[in-house]
UniProtKB/TrEMBL annotation:
<dbReference type="InterPro" id="IPR017788">
    <property type="entry name" value="Hda"/>
</dbReference>
<dbReference type="InterPro" id="IPR027417">
    <property type="entry name" value="P-loop_NTPase"/>
</dbReference>
<dbReference type="InterPro" id="IPR055199">
    <property type="entry name" value="Hda_lid"/>
</dbReference>
<dbReference type="GO" id="GO:0006270">
    <property type="term" value="P:DNA replication initiation"/>
</dbReference>
<dbReference type="Pfam" id="PF22688">
    <property type="entry name" value="Hda_lid"/>
</dbReference>
<dbReference type="GO" id="GO:0005886">
    <property type="term" value="C:plasma membrane"/>
</dbReference>
<dbReference type="GO" id="GO:0032297">
    <property type="term" value="P:negative regulation of DNA-templated DNA replication initiation"/>
</dbReference>
<protein>
    <submittedName>
        <fullName>DnaA regulatory inactivator Hda</fullName>
    </submittedName>
</protein>
<dbReference type="GO" id="GO:0003688">
    <property type="term" value="F:DNA replication origin binding"/>
</dbReference>
<feature type="domain" description="Hda lid">
    <location>
        <begin position="155"/>
        <end position="219"/>
    </location>
</feature>
Length: 224
């Protein structure tokens, strides 16, 4: 109950284009911002490079975000709403049924590409399409249109991203805490963001400010 009450008061910061630290990915972000019906974009890059953030941002207002770990893909026999955006994250984890559904979606996308029924199809994975260990006909389809590699952020860009996330959530994050997180915890943005969210909950539960001692206390509590 206590944990739920804490979750109820924590601010939810949805992934948006304006809170994504672009780094060297300016062209990719610009292309996603201007994506139109009839286009398909495949994003690839290392874990924590921002693929999920960008797919969620692209589908935030009038789209459908799907993660292969948890979601059932739309039935390709059902028509997709014209002008909508469908994003499929982590295609390297497709089940057999999901692979068949995505194959059908790509065929529907191609058929409607230059018609009033056109829609946008986005996808992501950890490597270029030709290197994915999935069925060959899907590797080919993922490369039908635009393919972009997401470059990982530099350390300075990661710090900027972490501080931006903290600011968005109203979390005061000192330079001392930030330095400790980077030097002794991780430099992967996904891990850092998860730690920040967990610290936010822990500090509220403990009624203490986020400091290095609190951070160490939280990490110790996870292993006790």
């Amino acid at each position: 109950m206590k944990e739920q009450l804490i979750l109820d008061v924590l601010p939810v910061v949805p992934p948006r284009f304006d809170n994504f630290v672009t780094g060297r990915n300016g062209e990719t972000v610009s292309r996603l911002l201007a994506v139109a019906a009839g286009q398909s974009i495949y994003l690839w890059g290392e874990h924590g490079s921002g693929k999920t953030h960008l797919l969620r941002a692209a589908t935030r207002q009038h789209g459908l975000y799907l993660n292969t770990a948890t979601d059932i893909l739309p039935d390709p026999g059902e028509p997709v709403a014209p002008g909508s955006i469908i994003a499929v994250d982590d295609v390297h984890n497709l089940s057999e049924a999901q692979a068949a559904a995505l194959f059908g979606l790509f065929n529907q996308w191609k058929t409607s590409q230059h018609t009033p029924e056109a829609f946008t199809l986005l996808a992501s994975g950890p490597c270029a399409p030709r290197q994915l260990e999935i069925r060959e006909d899907l590797r080919t389809r993922l490369a039908w249109d635009l393919v972009y590699r997401l470059e990982t952020l530099t350390d300075d860009e990661r710090r900027s991203a972490l501080l931006q996330r903290a600011s968005d959530k109203g979390i005061p994050l000192s330079a001392e805490v930030t330095n400790w997180m980077f030097n002794y915890y991780a430099r992967d943005m996904s891990a850092l963001s998860s730690l920040l969210d967990a610290l936010d909950r822990y500090s509220l539960a403990e009624k203490r400010s986020i400091t290095v001692p609190l951070l160490k206390s939280y990490l110790q509590s996870r292993h006790s």
